[in-house]
Design brief:
The chain contains eight helices and twelve strands. With 263 residues, it is α+β, with helices and mostly antiparallel strands. The strands form three sheets. Strands 1-12-9-6-7 form a five-stranded antiparallel sheet, with helices on one face. Helix 2 packs antiparallel against helix 3. The longest helix is centred in the first third of the chain and has 22 residues.
Length: 263
């Protein structure tokens, strides 16, 4: 099988409050490629939990390991129910491994989790909590078009309480999606620390992508070749910038993938 044809780059940085107080970043991100499959994962540890920084790192590690294996075994599964089943089964495996590792203190490691699986014929999306995903696909009048994937449900229709991997009945609030669009050439995952910068709200309250932000983030990774040191430094500077800190002082994570140009 061929290699995944995506250029992937991202990072998590501590927010202003954590820098000020000397606390660790409670966000994490990870990605892995194996054969034609790439898996991208981001997580946001619960600020009120004492070991959530460890929890977010464990969550993305487990997600990458389990989903790259699962997707590799089913890389040619037909889009649709088979992909939803694959994601739901993997979520169960990830949760069980997380709880086995953290034991009786699991609640101290509470974290959200958002994952995208990039396979040759489909994109799989798995999320619990308030992370989000923006896709770049197609163009109108020469302008790239951006789309927000549906987010996971809140703990109840009357509350905006965040659901964590360790929440009771977390699987009930987990969401899976399968997207089949060969025009997708950019994927962005983030935690809620970038929601004000990357998303806007429509009149009905539905999140919509901030096109100028998404365009800049993707375009800076569109060039050929490996990710440069300057691209890494520029992303770190953006995530720590006064402009984004003024919008949200929380930790920030941005993990992006752009499709490599075919030779």
């Amino acid at each position: 099988m061929g290699r995944a044809d995506w250029r992937i780059h991202g990072m998590s940085v501590e927010g202003y409050r954590h820098r000020r107080d000397g606390l660790p970043c409670q966000d994490a991100c990870a990605h892995v490629t194996e054969g034609p499959v790439a898996v991208l994962a981001v997580a946001d540890g619960a600020g009120s939990r004492p070991r959530s920084d460890e929890g977010s790192r464990l969550a993305v590690k487990l997600a990458a390991e389990h989903l790259v294996r699962r997707a590799g075994e089913a890389v040619h599964s037909p889009p649709g129910k088979a992909v939803h089943d694959l994601l739901a089964d993997a979520f169960h495996e990830i949760t069980m491994a997380f709880l086995d590792t953290t034991g009786a203190a699991a609640a101290d490691f509470a974290t959200t989790l958002t994952v995208v699986v990039l396979a040759p014929d489909w994109l799989g999306h798995l999320t619990v909590g308030d992370g989000f995903v923006v896709l770049r696909a197609g163009a109108e009048d020469g302008e790239p078009q951006f789309h927000v994937l549906p987010q996971a449900a809140d703990a109840s229709e009357y509350s905006n309480e965040t659901v964590f991997l360790t929440s009771p009945d977390a699987a009930r609030w987990m969401r899976t999606d399968c997207v089949c669009d060969p025009g997708i050439d950019g994927v962005l995952l983030s935690t809620d620390g970038l929601a004000q910068a990357a998303l806007s709200r429509t009149g009905g309250g539905t999140p919509a992508p901030n096109a100028s932000f998404a365009d800049a983030v993707f375009r800076s990774l569109d060039g050929p070749g490996p990710v440069s040191d300057s691209a890494h430094d520029n992303l770190a500077a953006l995530l720590r910038s006064d402009r984004l800190t003024a919008l949200n002082a929380d930790d920030k994570t941005l993990l992006r993938a752009v499709r490599k140009a075919r030779p």
